[in-house]
Amino acid sequence: MRHFIHAAILLLPLLVFSSCNLEDQGEIDEEKIEQYLSDNKLTATRHSSGIYYLITTPGSGGSPTLTSTVTVNYKGYYLDNSVFDQTTGSPIQFPLSNLIQGWQIAIPLLQKGGKGTFFIPSQLGYGSYPHRESLPTLF
Description:
The protein contains two helices and eight strands; from the N terminus they run E-H-E-E-E-E-E-H-E-E. Strands 1, 2, 3, 4, 5, 6, 7 and 8 form an eight-stranded mixed β-sheet that branches. It is of the alpha+beta class. The chain is 17% helix and 32% strand. The relative contact order is 0.35. A hairpin with a 4-residue loop joins strand 4 (69-78) and strand 5.
């Protein structure tokens, strides 16, 4: 089954310091997400994984599973609102199981045709971006 989904995703790059473990980074990421939401007057739901999400259009017809191929339009942002990745023109298809863990959790929160914004902590995203240091990211 193929699911077409529109997504904006916020990812937090992970900065690894010798004195910083993943638990500490998770707390830092959560604080940054909450501050971003507050600064932008957004009310998001927190998933047990640590992802925050806003569903703007739930869609219909069922949610994808890890074995689904999803067709998505997406735009990825850092928390400073600079774009780091996006689809251009046509949507793109991926097996959901091949995507970052954050997408594997977030995308099934939508149904076919759904639209949402996901705020993904670094440990569920792409990990370390030393050139962007402490700037969290948004898809």
